[in-house]
Design brief:
The protein has three domains: 68 residues, no CATH class; 140 residues; 137 residues. It contains 16 helices and six strands.
């Protein structure tokens, strides 16, 4: 039923009720009258104003939220550029710095010959060793605890490496009464230490062995102590130099293991022999690049670099006797020296056999040093995406650093 309603301001609407209630629309169409009444008395207009006013406010709120989101993003970016260090972190940074200094002294005390001798004032060597080990354990624990909350990534990288060395020497430390707790700190059994005797402690912290536990800890503490920046970045020049030396060492190692280097040549009499001068030149280059790599890369804060340098040291230490047969010696700082006469008098077939194993193995780690020092200098700082710390080859302390 079509209805055309034309109303005046004061018109009587009673007939509309009758018309609508008797038509096909039924009583449901009374909603129309209700809506009309709302329009007439002005309440509908108020409702529309309220609705569209709310919509405008909602739009303004959304705009405000977008603006707020933009401000949050800007704030995050700003904090990334200029990170704020909490009071807890500031305290940890200070404790780590002073702790490393104390640990350096306590390690040095255990490496001094005087610690293992009786003194004129009646203090026995045994008592001095016990005191020195107790001081070492205390200082070590302070450093580990401070490192967990520290933001000094260049220092914590060395602490993680130090803890890795401790884990590798767990059995030897246990013999002198020092055990490793679940959180990476140390615990001392004084009675067991006294039973072990001073000779075991002295051997463990020996300065004559570059791979001794004491030498490894002293090295890590030394480099951590001289790192003063709170960012874990290596200088470009140092990275490039170390990377270049490592790449060259890799090439030398492979060459010393190759057949091409040992091809026979004929002398003036037509006799076949090794080109000893050529082989020596490559061995001399190997020694030079080996030392250059350590000189530049040891100060790196990159855990990948430090781990692979550690593996190279271990392999060299295991093969020190064999190297000596060819005139290559290793000093207490881990640097090589080659004696030309001794090398040239060596059996070149044995030199090749040796470098097929040792040289190839060194080449692998040198390649990784080169990789971390160049392509991964910024990305491989040792921290994983979730903020835990990773030491290549060991995940024992990933949750603690």
């Amino acid at each position: 039923m079509g209805i055309n309603i034309n109303v005046g301001k004061n018109q009587d609407y009673s007939y509309l009720f009758q018309s609508l209630s008797s038509g096909s629309g039924g009583m449901g169409n009374l909603n129309f009258l209700s809506d009309y009444a709302s329009i007439k008395n002005g309440s509908y207009g108020k409702l529309l104003k309220t609705y569209y006013g709310a919509a405008q406010n909602s739009s303004a709120s959304a705009s405000s939220k977008r603006s707020s989101s933009g401000n949050v993003l800007e704030r995050i970016l700003e904090e990334k550029k200029n990170p704020k260090v909490s009071k807890e972190a500031q305290e940890a940074n200070a404790n780590l710095t002073t702790g490393l200094s104390s640990l350096k002294s306590s390690v040095a005390a255990l490496q001094k010959d005087g610690t293992y001798t009786d003194t004129a004032n009646g203090k026995s060597a045994a008592d001095k060793v016990v005191s020195a080990v107790k001081a070492y354990v205390s200082d070590y624990n302070n450093v580990v605890s401070a490192a967990k909350n520290s933001t000094l990534a260049n220092k914590t990288a060395y602490v993680a490496n130090m803890m890795n060395s401790t884990a590798k020497n767990a059995d030897k430390l246990a013999e002198i009464g020092v055990t490793i707790n679940g959180n990476g700190t140390l615990q001392l059994d004084e009675a067991k230490l006294k039973e072990a005797g001073i000779s075991k402690v002295k051997d463990l912290f020996s300065t004559e062995d570059i791979m001794s536990y004491g030498s490894m800890i002293a090295s890590r503490v030394q480099f951590a102590g001289v790192s003063s920046s709170n960012t874990a970045t290596d200088s470009t020049d140092t990275s490039n130099t170390a990377g270049s030396a490592a790449a060259s060492l890799k090439a030398d190692s492979k060459a010393l293991a190759s057949d091409a280097l040992y091809e026979m040549v004929k002398d003036k009499d037509g006799n076949e022999k090794y080109d000893v001068d050529k082989i020596f030149a490559k061995a001399k280059s190997f020694v030079s690049n080996y030392n250059k790599m350590f000189d530049t890369a040891e100060s790196s804060t990159n855990s990948g670099v430090l781990s692979n340098l550690s593996y190279i040291r271990e392999k060299t230490a295991r093969n020190e006797s064999a190297l000596k047969q060819f005139g290559i010696s290793v000093d207490n700082k881990g640097r090589m020296k080659i004696d030309e006469d001794t090398f040239k008098k060596s059996d070149m077939s044995k030199v090749q056999d040796f470098f097929r194993d040792y040289g190839s193995s060194i080449a692998t780690n040198a390649s990784l040093v080169d990789f971390y020092m160049t392509t991964q200098a910024d990305a491989a700082k040792g921290y994983t995406a979730d903020g835990t710390y990773n030491v290549q080859g060991s995940s024992r302390y990933a949750d603690f650093m």
